[in-house]
Every structure is written in C-alpha cells, then in structure tokens.
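FAQ: What does a multi-protein file look like?

Like this. Sequence, then tokens, then the next protein.
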Amino acid sequence: MLTVPLADRMRPEDFIHVYGDKKLFGENGIFSRMIASNHIPNMIFFGPSGTGKTTSANILARASGKTLRKLNATSAGISDIKDIIAETGSLMGNDGILLYLDEIQYFNKKQQQSLLEFIEDGRITLIASTTENPYFYVYPAIISRCAVFEFKPLEVSELEKAVMGAKAFWENENGKNINIDQAAVRSIALSAAGDARRAVNLFENVANISSGTITLEDIKMFLPEVMGMSGFDKAGDGHYDLVSALQKSIRGSDPDAAVFYLAKLLAGGDLISVCRRLQVIASEDIGLAYPQGAILTLACVESAKELGLPEAGIPLAHAVVALATAPKSNSAYAAYNAAAADVASGKGISTPRALQNVHFDGENSAEKGQNYKYPHDYPNHYVKQQYLPNDIAGACYYRFGENKNEQAAKAYWERIKGTLPENMKK
C-alpha cells in the first residue's frame, strides 16, 4: 500500500501556517494580501526544494476560484498545453484557468511561447515554479508578464517550528504522544539545509520506529556519516558563520584557515554552498589580479560535483589553496557596484546613438547616420569616442588595482591612449 509522506499530508491550507519567509507568508505576507484583494497575477516562483513553492501555488489556486490544472515540465509536452488551452473556450474555463507549471525550466522556448496569448488575455493565469534562476531559463516575454518571487532556504528557527508542527500532526494521526529532545529537534533542523520537506520527512522516519522518545542518537542513525553534526554549530547559525569564515580567510590570504573551514563545511555535507561561494570569491576577491583563478575554480567545482563527497574535497582544496595564495583585487567588483548604483538611481537611460543598433533612418528622422567608429579600423585597434550615456559621460567605475596584472594593463593603455584621464589613475 502506498503511503503519502507526512510532508504532503500536513501541507498547510492557508498562509498563516506556512513556514518560511514572513514577507511572503503569514497573515500580512504578500500572498495573503493577494487573496484579500482578490487579485492573483501571473507569477514565477524560484528557489530550492522544500521552501514552499508548491504549497503556495496550491493555496493561491484554491483562493482564485479558477479551474486548477497542473503540469510538470519534466514530463509534459505541447499536447498537454493544447489540451489546457482547449478548455479555455469551454464551460470549465468560463472563470479562467489557473495553470500551475512545475519545473518550467524544462520547457523549451516554443512550449513557453504557446502560453503567451492566453496569459496576455487572461484566459490562463500562470503560476510557474523552478529551482533555477528564471532570468536564465524562462523566456523573457513570459517573465515580463509575471511577478517573480524568490523562495529562500528556511532559517533554522523556522525548520524547528516545522519539526514541532510535524510532531503535533503525527501525534494527532496516531492518537499517541511522542517525546523529542530539543537537541534532536535542532539536529534535524540543521541537517535539513533549509529544506522543510527534508526536515519533516526525517522526523517521520524516526518517529515511525520510535518507542516513544526521539533522541539525538536516533537522528544520527538516519544521517549518513558525511551529514554528521560536526559541520554545524548546534548553537544556531554556525553554518553561515563557517561559509563567511571561509571567504574571509581566503580574502585574508590564509590558506591554513581556509582549508580548515572547507573541511568543516564538507564534514557537514554542504558541498553546494562551498561550490557556489568559491566561484563568488574567485571574482569578488581575487578578480583581475589573477583572472585564471575563476577558470581554475570552475574546473575544480565541476570536478567536485562529479566526484561527490568525500573525494570532492580534493579538487576543492586545490581551489581554496590557489585562491588563498593568489594576489587579490576587488577592482572589478567595486566597478560593478558603482555602476549598479548609477543604474539604480535612474542614470544613463539613453544609449549614445553611435552605439545603438541603427539600421535605417526614417525619411523624417532629424538625425542621420550612426557615426560609429569601428576601433579595428584604427591604429592599435583603438579610437576615442563616447560610450557612456550623456548624463554620465566621463564617469569612472573601474580603477586599476595595484597588482602586477592590472598595472601591466594600465601601462598598456597609457601607451595606446596617451595619457589616462585623471580619475583613472591610481
């Protein structure tokens, strides 16, 4: 007999009881306010597993009053989309159809485009979910018609609440009480890595074989050695402290400390966070002082993912030591932040005409010709012309770092361009 997992049996039916980010959930969360206003827009949910995407879609679908249809893009095809579109003209679709499309990143461009007309005219309300960044995997025309919400991994405190909620639900179902040590609750929360479903399922597995009390030792029996507790701080947010310590040790050029924090994180089974953070470090902290560092790090990360734990520690140690002992520069990172600040403040809206994709000037156009100068037609493949918008012309975001690599680039451009602008000099 098939048994529905506890995480599905106790799935909340309103947002007050959803664990996680209170900006999204809770009585005053954005989703509750959508329901209160009777306005359910097209939406894309993105984030890791076990963070409430499917639960939120189910609650919103019920509240919408629309006919609910569900597809999973890993198995659905264009014929499934056509079947749902056909319903929009039938009695079933009179009030509109709400389509919950899980794992939308597995739909190709044509499949996603087939929904556009019906999203546009309101016959279909789309709620799509994905574990990937939608700006990389979802067709831009779909994104432009949707509100995008990020679902973040649950904090330890929220996961502890989920475990206690699972305990109460399990006791009500089974008609008996079960005791659980606080240390056991915390160990479940810490080992779940932000995934509420994982936390609840772990509790259920232990509860079903328990004689009435769940201890820390019982929890450890259900965790592989690589997921043991040594990698996590039982006092609270130690995991995030370790990730921070790893980056700061590399930034501070201390390979011994960096390798230690790598080992501690991997002892906790957190391969993904380490891989992501190392790729950030390679560009944020080492940057142009050692540009090959980003390439080396990516190769080591891909190798680690293919190998899996525990062997993944070998290529990752390679990357950590290389980055910790490499020269450092945050010049590109600082340049991006400065440019992003100007973008956020609304500067530089109009692209210079010379850079625009101009193929034809209309007969009534006041300005003729693009007047773009092709650098490869000039000595040293360089010619002076304005690239920044008029309102920020002359702005300097990038400043050469003092390391050998960037100083060599500075000397090269001083020779090619003549004298660098004053604000480009160190």
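And here is the next protein:
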Amino acid sequence: MKIALINENSQAAKNALIEQTLRSVAEPLGHEVFNYGMYSAEDKEQLTYVQIGILAAVLLNSGAADFVITGCGTGEGAMLACNAFPGVLCGHVVDPTDAYQFTQVNNGNAIALPFAKGWGWGCELNLSYVFEKLFVSEWGLGYPRERAVPEQRNKKILDEVKKVTHRSLVDILPELDPELVKGALAGRNFKEFFFANAKDESIIAAVKNIVG
C-alpha cells in the first residue's frame, strides 16, 4: 500500500515526528510511505487544510496513493476538506479505537488526526497505536462481527451515493481557484512522488497542465 502523509501549516512542525512514527509501523508491514509535507513551519510551500483536500483527492483519484494520513489542529477541517471531493472517504480519528473501527466499519481511504489536541507526553505513543490499529487486519470486515453484512452493504451504498453526488475530479480542478490548486501541488517532492506513482492518465494530464 502507498501511504501519503500530508501536514498543513499550523501543524507542520510535527511532520518529522509523525513521519518517523508512521514509518516505524507501516514499513515493516510492507507499506510505502510518501511524505508530501509540509516538512516544517518555515516551508516556502504553505498548505491550508482546504488545500489538503485538493492534494488528497489528486493522490487518491490518480492512484498515486492508496491511503492518506493527514490532519490539522482539530482534525475537523482536514476531514471536511477531504470529504468535499470525489473518491475520498476520510474519517476523523482521535485514538486507536477510532482507527480500528473506521477501517472495519467505514473502510475509507483517508484519516484526519487532531494534531493540536492532547499533544503532550506520550503523543508519539498514541500515534503509534493509532497507526498499528489502522493496519492490524483486513479492512471492511465489520465491527462487531455480527454487524458485518449490514455494514458492508451500507458502505457499498455510500460509495454509490458519492458517485452521484460528486463530479469527476478532472472536471472540478479547472473550476477551482488556480492559485489555490497550484499551491496544493507545489510541495518540493510532489512532482517526483506523483508522476512516479500516478496511474490515471486523465488526472496525470490535468496535473501537468497545472504544475507544468
């Protein structure tokens, strides 16, 4: 699985710790981690939580990433921005129980964490436990197990609803503020990671028109 890590500007100083913790859990399981920044609060390329939604949608819809881990101060803004776009199903995750139940019940492809809440002693332990519960078992099995069948059915229904209520990302990107989109894709490693991993030719072409 290709996992994309995205931090917005208010929490960028924590990027290195988040990346290190994520890699320590995900890489031994065979997953790849791609850090799309922000890498520090002083980065030239600043990301807002709205731009997180744009970047996450581009990565997930193109196939450049299979899963996005992101967040903001409360996690709420990043979650809302991600869910504003097609092909993104983002959960708000505070603790390991949230992480496990999201994968089992909702079977989404992104989580948003509250990086400014409870960030004291042991914060890296909670992060590690959250990441462990994300990848502990096959997703979409349902929880509790006796609820598996209706939960799997509801997830399929939600996927179909989102297909109707959202337009194609290729149609959406040209109608957004060009500077907002360019800023979302301006990270120093974006081109290297994206073009090496993206699969959807229509989105690749749209991104080339934006970033050159």
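Q: Is there any per-entry metadata?
A: Some entries carry free-text notes. For the entry above: The first strand starts at residue 2 and ends at 5.
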